[in-house]
Amino acid sequence: MADAPTSVSAPTVLVVDDEAGILESLRILLRAEGFAVITAQGGRAGLEQLATTRPDVVLTDIRMPIVDGVQVLSAARQRDPDCPVILMTAQATLQSAVQAVNEGAWQYVQKPFRNDELVALLRRAAETRQLRRENKTLKQQIRSQGGRTGDGPTGRSAAWVAALRIAETVAPTDATVLIQGESGTGKEVVARWIHELSGRRDQPFLSINCGALPESLLESELFGHVKGSFTGAIKDKTGLFAAAGRGTFFLDEIGETTPATQVKLLRVLQQREVIPVGATEAIPIETRLIAATNRDLEAEMRTGRFRSDLFYRLNVIQIHLPPLRDRRDDIPMLVERFLGRLAAARNEAPKRLAPDVADLLQAYPWPGNVRELENALERAVILSPGAVVERAALPDRIVERRTEPLVTSRAPANPTLETIERAYIQWVLQAEGGNKTRAAEVLDIDPSTLSRKLARYGTGEG
After folding, report:
1. pLDDT per residue over 111-144, tens digit each?
2. Average pLDDT over residues 170-193
3. pTM for the model
4. Residue 423: its pLDDT value, please?
5. Computed from CA positions of residues 19, 20, 22, 26, in that sequence, does the dihedral angle turn out positive or negative?
6. pLDDT tens per residue, range 18-68
7. 362 and 328 part of one domain
8. 290 and 199, same structural domain?
9. Within this chain, do residues 380 and 427 fall inside the same structural domain, yes or no?
10. Which of 55, 57, 167, 314 is most open to solvent, judged by the fewest CB atoms within 10 Å of its CB?
């Protein structure tokens, strides 16, 4: 039996139970709360309704004769994988409900339940359904545009698509996300993508590079400060956590933070509040946190340079972005996109690559990843007077790259993380002809951070 919708946009709930009294009570309750309600007495009737209707949410008892709730769940997901299914369960069937959640149920509610809790759960399920619809529409638009939209992710390689699938799955939730990958792999692009696919898309997206600021200034930027809390604090300042409101805050290079800052970040995640520098009262926050790092935080944690409790708070959902050398099939797509973007900025037709230039770009290992590719193409477009980008316009490191192996028999058997980082920085610096500004861009770190690292390594370059 179905009620007429209360409004055009009212979410439709299919309620399945073998007890007529429970069905009627739920019909009255949910109808009063603004839902369009379809009821089915028993699992077999529920299957019949699923064959002819497309509810936004399914609410089904798990223990019913002949056809139980797990079979209703299976049929609902087979017909519409994006439809959330909520199971109603008594204590005796709680284990079965938990198992069903692991197999695809959206959530379960234990009898006897409070009406307000059930209604809130159904509303969240309906919102999730709507977000999934919007995400699917957006992805279809992306595919129709050849895999690109605006500044969103670009690529079709298996490793890249696998990372994006995780991003798309977690986007509608409020889960904290940790994005790991080498510098220049597109961590902020993916963070913005998650924001755009979430229900927070109309709220701010704010970001900060934790490695670009000294500790005292970073804490002021993150948490804010009150007037007079330190020299130069001439007025109150709202921190970025609070300024992000109900939006998304992206913390890049979180591995560069000091232990003192890490303690304060842990408090933010645990208490969902910040205390501005010099203040005594906490400010509640609602922002979603996405963090990123090019470091191995688990290795940093083992050496004591990164707090384990903060790592486990951040590492709710982990997304690993592959380096460009592991997704070479995406290079032609990226080249096309960057050439189009550069042409639009210069108000001219996109330039083409000479065949040998395309081969060189495909063969180069790209230690600076996508960012280095974009910078190299910008340079080549500027230095190419005609409609075709020729070999001479490419940086020398791409045209005349060395072929000797980066790892030789002289390398230590078990190099430390710092040894590897030092070797990589020196390699990039050499590739950039000793230009620290360009090297810092390729490494995706602030020039002052690069200088501090070089000074610590004792290279005489700091």
Report:
1. 888 888 889 889 888 877 776 676 566 555 544 4
2. 92
3. 0.58
4. 80
5. positive
6. 999 999 999 999 999 899 999 999 999 999 999 888 899 999 998 899 998
7. yes
8. yes
9. no
10. 167
Q: Are both 67 and 213 inside the same structural domain? A: no
Answer yes or no: do 412 and 386 share one domain.
no
d(Cα 179, Cα 119) in Å, to the nearest integer? 34
Task: Count structural domains, the chain.
Answer: 4
More confident residue, 168 or 127: 168
Summarize pLDDT for 256-283 with one digit per residue, the tens: 999 989 999 999 998 899 888 888 888 8
> Do 42 and 74 lie in a common domain?
yes
Of 381, 399, 417, the residue at which a domain comes to its end is 399
Q: What's residue 345's pLDDT?
A: 84
Domain that holds residue 75: 12-133
